[in-house]
Amino acid sequence: MGRAVFVNGDFVPEEEAxxxxxxxxxxxxxxxxxxxxxxxxxxxxxxxHMARLRRSLGELGIAPPMEEPEFLAMHRELVARNAxxxxxxxxxxxxxxxxxxxxxxxAETPRTVVAFTQAGPLVDKPAGREGLxxxxxxxxxxxxxxxxxxxxxxxxxxxxxAKRVGKDDAWMVEDGVVTEGTSNNAYIxxxxxxxxRDLSNSILHGITRAAVLRLAREAQMRLEERxxxxxxxxxxxxxFVTSASSFVTPVVEIDGLLIGEGVPGxxxxxxxxxxxxxxxxxxx
Length: 284
Ligand code: PMP
Fold this sequence. Notes:
The chain is an alpha+beta fold. It has helices at residues 24-28, 46-60, 68-81, 126-130, 153-164, 207-218, 230-234, 266-282; strands spanning 4-7, 10-13, 31-39, 42-43, 87-94, 112-119, 132-138, 169-174, 177-181, 185-190, 193-196, 222-225, 238-243, 247-254, 257-258. The radius of gyration is 19 Å and the shape is globular. The mean pLDDT is 97.
């Protein structure tokens, strides 16, 4: 039997997990999601992910389907039922199933809530040790990237463009400056300064970003939150990305140009170490 999956209040075998063809997540990408990493069977940065979920739902006018303690209990139950030691919990909430209409269904329409686990190493990953080779591509997404919606076709196309030319990922560029990676926040290091784009509707407000910036400040590292150009990135001493599933992962090549020595740099390596240590300590 496969994994236990959470669907609208029940834990069911994955083979039996179903949602309606009328679900607005399916028809309109009318839904939001979160990905929480799991280390040693515990949830990393959980309150941050729940705060962002609440915000994403609020921005779309979707009533929260449950309270945070229920979400926590459900996540823990899913981790326990699947004996998950290291990996991810994916959670998706949509506006629910209704006749296809651009107009929202009544607010009392039950939201669809689905969650499942994906097991796999997060700390001991080749990309964490060796770094990523990326390309830059135009950012073709919509204007509300701060809402974590399930409309992921644009970043999926961008990542496929990278895969087609034998690279690992893409950074998206708008008006000459980097917005973010296809599924991560983007950083460069110039001299002793870490530079990452400031928060706005143009990027997702990464939960890992918030933790890494806090830890960098605590370690007295110099930070600048501002947009940076592709030219700055190519001339940088280091580059890296952050996300719940990749923690801090070095970038060693951009558009065929080596960054620094073309190997993971000391700042990214140190931040990865600090972040993983903090995540292990604070996971719940
Ligand atoms: N930006 C984008 C576009 C993403 O998809 C993600 C990961 N979902 C992130 C940034 C990183 O966010 P987090 O650290 O919360 O995983």
